[in-house]
Amino acid sequence: MLAIDGYGSLYRFYLAAKKAIQDRVPLPYSFSEEPQPEVFSWDAYRENVDVAAKYLVRNVLSDRINKGDTFPCILNKDGTLITLSTFLLTVTEGFALENSAFLDAKDKAKADGLVLDGEYIFGLKSLTSDYWHAPFISERIFTDSSLVLDDVLYPYGRGMPLIDWRSGTVSLKRLRALHEAIEAMRISTSAFEKAGIQVDQFDAREIIDAYDESDAPNLLNMLAPYDGCTIVAPIEWIGELNGSEEEALNEPADNLFSGAPKSAILSLLKAQPTLTKSGVKAKLFPKTSTRRFNMHWQQAAEENPALAKPGRRKEKS
């Protein structure tokens, strides 16, 4: 992979941001012995951290630009640097709830004097505050990355993600898929019209026109040469996150919270020893694949061999 002295990839910034957030608010593993209707899952906590880290990195880069520093860049395939607009770093995940503990806590902190000027949803000023700590371990704060057509075709929408944060690269995968869907719609609509069949009830023409008038076609053409290229910024900026860069770099992307899943399993089973393996998955890892959950379970079994015994009680059918 190409590298430029003095620059670090967006991926490095993202890992450092996630670590900075997790270091301030690790997920507690103290579960009540009394059955609870719902236990906040490790999956939800990780989603909160993952999304907030995107906003945090964007805030770091924007702050530097506003101070007159250089812009982040796309590292082209020939080794040259192309100035990058922070527009490309737009985060598409928004708030999951209009009324949430996170927003209430943020409003109270601002009323108490916390100044968050220039910060959108989450940034450096929030990172050094504590209003968000309790909500991060009690509710799912953000939406997922799924979108509706209004999000990508109209100016007030959330926009199409153009970055793969897990690799720190320009990614046109979803934008290209949208383009292909619109072109398929254009062809089928034209075919229906040639056959004298009206398709107005599907609003196909309105969707096609909205796409043609949106920024999407121009963005696809403009960014196509850079699809898959790494995004970089001056590596010294990573110090803004107050985290250990080297520690963050040594963590695999899929396992940033390397001890958390194992610890969560052991703690939950200590409080509720009769809980089945599938019950643990449902409580802590509802969105995690079975294969990955089994890996977490195996890691827990290395500390508590009883979990690996063949006679362990299974879920009743």
Structural features, described:
Helix content is 45%, strand content 6%. Mean pLDDT is 80; it is low at 32-39 and 251-259. By secondary structure, the chain is mostly helical. The termini are far apart. It has helices at residues 10-24, 42-66, 101-111, 124-127, 133-136, 149-153, 173-194, 204-213, 216-223, 245-249, 260-271, 277-284, 290-303; strands at residues 7-9, 73-75, 81-83, 163-164, 169-170, 230-234. A hairpin with a 4-residue loop joins strand 4 (163-164) and strand 5. It folds into three domains: 1-170 and 228-251, no CATH class; 172-226, no CATH class; 259-308.
Work out the radius of gyration: 23 Å
- Largest sheet: spatial strand order: 1-6-2-3
Q: Describe the biggest sheet?
A: 4 strands, antiparallel
Which regions are unreliable across 5 or more consecutive residues at pLDDT < 50?
Answer: 32-39, 251-259
Instruction: Write down the secondary-structure element order.
Output: EHHEEHHHHEEHHHEHHHH
Oligomer class: single chain
Give the domain tally: 3
Overall geometry = globular
Helical amount = 40-55%
Distance between the termini: 50 Å
